[in-house]
Structures are given as structure tokens and as C-alpha cells.
Write a structure and sequence with these properties.
- The protein is an alpha/beta fold.
- The longest helix is centred in the middle third of the chain and has 26 residues, at 147-172.
- The radius of gyration is 20 Å and the shape is globular.
- Helix content is 42%, strand content 13%.
- The chain has one domain: TIM Barrel (Alpha-Beta Barrel).
């Protein structure tokens, strides 16, 4: 029987041989590092008016999936896109070695088990950063009316990401990266594919290429939205796993059309199971519906949430329970074998 880490690896490889469905985030542990601890990104439900390291004011209301920027006129960081450089100032990335050593030990402990990838989590990605700094409506307009300024700002943000990547790779040596950047709504991408490609393919090739040149085997990109129209660009960027793909993307169709060049981790939308008043029966029905007809090759059943957890308490644990149950029924493993093959499930929220 494969460990959860190796089973996840086999699920990602185009010609891999997983022996069961990889269950949500069981094959990876999302790990911290100095930048994320100093970034101001780690809000908790009920936090309001928190200002992150870029100067963006954030709110995280209870019973919503995550924090979001506040864009009243007085809170917008970038007041004028033509002079963005007067407003957008990269945070400090000079962290003492003693701080890195704390995280090195944590990564080594996970790696030593052989049961999960120790995957640093990176937020916030390039597209999201542009609308965090400018406000979403303004940013979408600027992509069409202020191309040069937006590209210059994205280049600046890319250079910052590369500095973060340098620190992570030099000190922590991860084999997997978990990177956030949401690119659409439930029904469409925010940008037309050709516009998206013009702004983001090359910067992400640079960022993800750096990680892969420095020991990262797999890039997992969180994007819980409709983005089926962007899949060719995801592959070109070097993304190995699209985490958060919502069901209306046609997961089966993507796997077939692109010959498993991109693994899909998701398809179980939060709205299907993660709501006030959910029941175990709801979760079991949805889990089985989203496993029947799939094989573990290229498909990793997972809540679309961008991390191990849920908005409403208990949902994620219940989903893991029923995916385990499906694996025992279909592939013949016992519950104890499944649990022995992985670390204690990581729950970051919910």
C-alpha cells in the first residue's frame, strides 16, 4: 500500500499508478515560513480592519470562506495606476536565520515521515494582488486601459515573489508548492483568456520555473472558480495540480482533453456540503456522486476550499470520512491501513 504522499504523487503523474483516491489534502501538509507569518495574511473569522504588510485593509466575516480586501475610497492602496510606484511598496524580506531555523525543523519533521509533502503556502498571487491593491472594478478596467502600468506593477510583484521563492528554496527545500491566486467567478474567468495570457503566463512561468529549478517537483495552484478556458495556460505556466476547480468546469472533460497533463484537485464545491445545517447524509451523497465514474488517475477528490478545512465546523472531517469509506469499499483497504499511511489530518480552519 502506498503512503498518502506517494499515492498523491502517483495521482499527479500522467502515467502514475495510484492505488486509491487521494483524500483531500492528506498527501500534503501546508506549511508556514517567515514571509507568510509577517504578511498579515493569516486572518481568522471575525477579524475586521486588519492591515496586511502591503497596506491592504482586510476583513474576514464569520461563515464566509476567506478574508477579502476593503475598498472604500480611503482604504485603496494604489490611488493612481499611472504612478503605482508611489503607492505600492514591497514589504521587507530580510528575516534572521534563527527564524528560518524554526521552520526548517518543522519541514524536516514532516519530510522524515515520508507520508506527506511539506508544502509551503503562498498567498496572495499576482492577479489577486493587483485587485487587492487597486480594487477589483478598477483593476479590471486597468487591464484594458492601462496595459503598460499594469504590466510594470505585475513585474514588480513578480520580482517580490521570486525573492520569497529564493528564501523558501534556499532554507526549506520543499518538493511541493501550494500557491493561491483566484482567477474567476463561479461562471467565468475575470479576464478573457487572451488578456489573461498576455499579463500572466510569462510571470508565472518565471515564478513556477524558479521553484522547479530549485527542487520543487509539483506546483499546486489554488483557484476556486471557473477557469476551464485557462487550462492551456495553466499547463504552460508549469502548474501540475489545479486545486479548487469547481464542478462546472467539467473535470472529466479536462482530464480527457488534456491527456492528464494537469491533475484536478477539487470538484466538490463548498456549496454542495459546507453550509449551515449540513448533515452527514448530505456529505456522503455528494462524496459518492463525485467519486463514481472517476479513477484516481489525475483526479484528487477535494473540497474546493483553499486549504484543509471548511467554513462550517466538521464538514471537512466528514468528507474525509466518506472518501475513506469509498476507498475501503472499492479498493479493499481497511480504515486502519488508510490512517497508518498518512499523518494525522491537518485542519487549518472549520
Amino acid at each position: 500500500m502506498l503512503t498518502a504522499k506517494e499515492n498523491l504523487r502517483q495521482s499527479i503523474l500522467p502515467d502514475g499508478k495510484p492505488d486509491r483516491f487521494s483524500n483531500n489534502y492528506e498527501g500534503m501538509y501546508l506549511m508556514m515560513h517567515p514571509w507568510i507569518m509577517h504578511s498579515g495574511a493569516l486572518l481568522m473569522p471575525g477579524d475586521y480592519g486588519k492591515v496586511n504588510a502591503w497596506g491592504v485593509t482586510m476583513d474576514f466575516p464569520e461563515y464566509v470562506p476567506g478574508a477579502f480586501p476593503v475598498h472604500t475610497a480611503d482604504k485603496i492602496v494604489c490611488k493612481d495606476i499611472e504612478t503605482w510606484f508611489d503607492y505600492v511598496k514591497a514589504p521587507n524580506l530580510d528575516f534572521p536565520e534563527a527564524e528560518w531555523e524554526v521552520f526548517q525543523q518543522q519541514y524536516e519533521e514532516v519530510n522524515a515521515t515520508g507520508k506527506a509533502y511539506a508544502a509551503p503556502i503562498y498567498v496572495t498571487g499576482l492577479f489577486e494582488m493587483t485587485h487587492y491593491l487597486c480594487a477589483i472594478d478598477d483593476a479590471l478596467v486597468y487591464y484594458l486601459t492601462e496595459e503598460e502600468s499594469m504590466k510594470d506593477m505585475i513585474k514588480y510583484l513578480t520580482e517580490f515573489e521570486l525573492k520569497v521563492a529564493e528564501g523558501i528554496c534556499e532554507h526549506l527545500h520543499p518538493e511541493m508548492l501550494f500557491h493561491h491566486d483566484d482567477w474567476g467567478t463561479e461562471n467565468n474567468s475575470f479576464l478573457r483568456p487572451e488578456v489573461f495570457a498576455d499579463f500572466f503566463v510569462e510571470p508565472y512561468k518565471e515564478v513556477y520555473g524558479y521553484y522547479k529549478d530549485h527542487g520543487v517537483e509539483f506546483v499546486v495552484h489554488h483557484n476556486d472558480s471557473y477557469s476551464a478556458n485557462l487550462v492551456p495556460y495553466m499547463i504552460e505556466m508549469g502548474i501540475d495540480v489545479w486545486q479548487g476547480a469547481m464542478a462546472n468546469n467539467d473535470t472529466r472533460g479536462i482530464l480527457e482533453q488534456y491527456d492528464h497533463k494537469l491533475a484536478i484537485m477539487g470538484d466538490i464545491d463548498n456549496k454542495f456540503i459546507d453550509f449551515d445545517g449540513w448533515t452527514p447524509e448530505d456529505v456522503k451523497r455528494v462524496a459518492y456522486e463525485h467519486l463514481d465514474g472517476f479513477t484516481p488517475n489525475g483526479y484528487i477528490p477535494c473540497i474546493t476550499q483553499g486549504g484543509p478545512g471548511s467554513t462550517f465546523s466538521g464538514t471537512y472531517v466528514e468528507l474525509m470520512k466518506y472518501i475513506d469509506q469509498y476507498n475501503t469499499e472499492k479498493y479493499g483497504f481497511t480504515q486502519k491501513e488508510l490512517e497508518d499511511a498518512r499523518l494525522e489530518p491537518q485542519i487549518l480552519f472549520g
